[in-house]
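A student in our group prepared the protein record below, which I am reviewing. Thanks in advance; the entry in question is below.
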Amino acid sequence: MPSRLERALSPVLGLLLFFQAGLVVTGGAVRLTGSGLGCPTWPRCTGGSFVPVPHQAQGELHSWIEFGNRLLTIALFLTSISALIIVLVLHRRDIRNLARWQVLGILAQIPLGGITVLTHLNPIAVALHFILSMVLIAAGTILYERRQPNPTTHIVKKTKSQLLGRGQLLMTGLVIAVGTVVTGSGPNAGDASAPRFHFHFKEITWIHADLVIALVLLTIYFYVKSAPATLLRRRILIFFTLVLAQGGIGFLQFYRGLPELLVGAHLLGVTLVWIAAWRIYLAAK
């Protein structure tokens, strides 16, 4: 009979991954509503208060949207601490380091978020803030996938599926990285005064779209080469569906002038695609 801590590990790791994804989505809401400097300083929200104050120059709504993202970071940190404690008490050495890195990564996010604010939403700082979230989501996905103890460890010869899984993961990461450049070159900066990358927006967007097409073709090839009726093939199909939906949203938002709701849906989609890519990679291993 599993102990209470063993039963608690799965929902806590699930909540950890949920909060990681939620931080990306709420961060996008901050940017899309122009609330990036709703709290114009750090670690305080204003020069004299840690929380938004009435009649703040940036506007109360913008301040609370940005402050809400900061509060979610605190909830995420507390969840990561809970996960680490459970892992240590259960002597889960197989995932101990991953749990530790979750805590350290979230601690690194806090000053990086401060740098983002203090540099007035410099696109490099914004991109690094987002990429670190993607790294933490990857680690959170691995943690959740390994939530059940597996006492058997053995060396497996690399197969074609493993190589394709790694290639697909790398291609997905490249698509996301170029996507941050697209974001840093586009109009949704989080504040009207925020600096931008000096790339031609349409050209970098088409480079991003070409990489997505290459990813779709690789996914089709991977699906054809994988064994039928397997966990791996089911996960490839889920990934393929998400990438198609994400590509459709990206195409639509580009030609509709980047409306906020579509951009927000695209941001949620990239988080789901990234998680799905890691689930394929882990199934291929």
Remarks:
- The two ends are 29 Å apart (CA to CA).
- The chain has two domains: 1-149, 158-285.
